Amino acid sequence: MMPAVPSSNKLANRSISDCARDGMLITMRCNGCRRQVNYWAADLLQVIEDPFHEAHRPPWGCAHCRTGEYMVMRWRIPAASELASGLTVRRPVKKITKWIWRDEKV
What we know:
Layout: H1 16-21, E1 25-30, E2 36-40, H2 41-48, E3 71-76, H3 80-84
Antiparallel strand pairs: 1-2, 1-3
């Protein structure tokens, strides 16, 4: 069982890959604007690309508030009743690479 307070030792804390291995759902919530989004841990593992990213540390800030200050991450195994009732989960669709241009004097 994981302690309530994360350890200062990064390897002692649950990682995104631990959650993905256990088939967990990760909920990211902004306590500033109260926005909440569910992700499958396996999907986050693909996007974050760091298997040792700690599951209690949000990988990005709130898209609405534009800050990570109020972000909280929780992980759990969803109940069968939640899945049957149509739980909304955000899933990755595709990765987009974008060129950035600048003007230079020749």
